[in-house]
Specification:
Elements: H1 2-15, E1 31-34, E2 37-40, E3 47-49, E4 52-56, H2 60-63, E5 67-71, E6 76-80, E7 86-91, E8 96-102, E9 108-114, E10 120-122, E11 125-129, H3 130-136, E12 140-144, E13 149-153, H4 167-172, E14 175-180, E15 191-199, E16 206-215, E17 221-229, E18 235-236, E19 240-247, E20 250-256, E21 268-277, E22 283-287, E23 291-292, E24 297-298, E25 301-305, E26 311-315, E27 319-321, E28 325-328
Parallel strand pairs: 1-13, 2-23, 14-27
Antiparallel strand pairs: 1-2, 3-4, 4-11, 5-6, 6-7, 7-8, 8-9, 10-11, 12-13, 14-15, 15-21, 16-20, 16-22, 16-25, 17-18, 17-21, 19-20, 22-28, 23-24, 25-26
Length: 329
């Protein structure tokens, strides 16, 4: 019962949030993407100051898998790699970024990077240079002027001397999500279904719940229902089913169950979303994977029981999104 209540609370809370809108070039507020996931700044957005993109200390770097801490007394932000091998330390109003890399448990390489624009307080939020801190963790940073956005691709993790990174092991256990529909042409007021398909589910896993977000033009479509799918292809109404069809750029949904023998345990379709077409015009429906800086969560998350019957949530870079949109005519 305790586990059920936790799942219900998590799904319901996630569906109640409101997504932010896209970039605003007139205000100098670009979009930021990390490994293809758009970062939703729920408070102060990314801002361009003297041709340098500043972002809130949290959010972007957490989406990259790092840990962020703030020292009020020293007025410093520390961004630490998840394996605690590299640290980027920046002080408010300072034009120096300090980078510490552990070579062993007792030694480190220390470097300093001169910043074009220092970290600063904007709207009561600590804003730090995006490119400099991202590149300190060997991430690739590209600016897209046409789309008015920054695209960040995280690099291989930094390791101490004597350790070797094996990328094939890093991706070996990742699951892939895609969506598809058989309704290529739909008329006004008709309903149609969009399916979420999962591949590479580990042996022994049982899917208990899913939260997600579909991005689409709400003047064209409306999400009106959904159902989870069993191994045999049958559908069922889970213990909790929540749909917020007034989500910022589409609809947010949460479905969950702990009914035994109904959890999905193999590859295939895991969820069916039912939409209504509101006009004669066609459009695109995308399975979103944005990251909320307010809640520190991704739009789309899968909740499992693992091989030891322990609850496990997978999201963000742990899920690879492939063909995550459907076109409706």
């Amino acid at each position: 019962m305790k586990k059920l209540l936790c799942i219900i609370a998590a799904l319901a809370a996630a569906c109640g949030s409101v997504n932010a809108v896209a970039a605003d070039k007139a205000k100098g507020e670009p979009d930021v993407y990390v490994n293809g996931s758009r970062i939703v700044f729920d408070d102060v957005p990314a801002q361009i100051v003297d041709d340098v993109t500043l972002v809130p200390a949290r959010g972007v770097f957490e989406a990259m898998g790092n840990k962020v801490t703030w020292n009020e007394e020293k007025r410093t932000v520390t961004v630490a790699a998840s394996n605690n091998v590299r640290y980027a330390i920046i002080t408010i109003d300072s034009n120096i970024l300090k980078v510490k890399t552990l070579k062993s448990l007792l030694t480190s390489d220390d470097a300093e990077v001169e910043l074009e624009v220092p970290a600063q307080i904007i709207g009561d939020r600590t804003m730090i240079p995006l490119r400099a801190v991202s590149e300190a963790f060997d991430s690739d940073v590209k600016w897209d002027g046409d789309a008015y956005c920054v695209n960040i691709t995280t690099g291989a993790p930094v390791l101490m001397d004597g350790y070797t990174y094996k990328p094939e092991e890093d991706k070996a256990d990742k699951m892939t999500l895609s969506i598809h529909t058989d309704a290529e042409e739909v008329t006004k007021d008709e309903t149609f279904d969009v399916y979420i398909e999962l591949k590479n589910m580990p042996e022994g896993y049982k899917l208990e719940g899913i939260t997600g977000a579909f991005e689409y033009d709400r003047e064209l479509f409306q999400m009106v229902g959904g159902a989870m799918i069993c191994d045999d292809g049958s559908e069922y109404e889970p213990i909790i089913a929540v749909i917020n069809d007034n989500y910022g750029i589409g609809a947010k949904f949460g479905f969950g169950t702990v009914e035994r023998e109904k959890e999905k345990t193999s590859d295939g379709d895991i969820f069916k979303a039912t939409f209504k077409k509101l006009t004669d015009k066609g459009g695109k429906i995308t399975l979103g994977n944005t990251f909320s800086t307010k809640m520190s969560v991704y739009d789309t998350e899968l909740i499992f029981l693992d091989g030891e019957n322990k609850k496990k949530a997978l999201f963000g870079d742990e899920l690879l999104f492939v063909n995550n949109y459907a076109t409706i005519k």
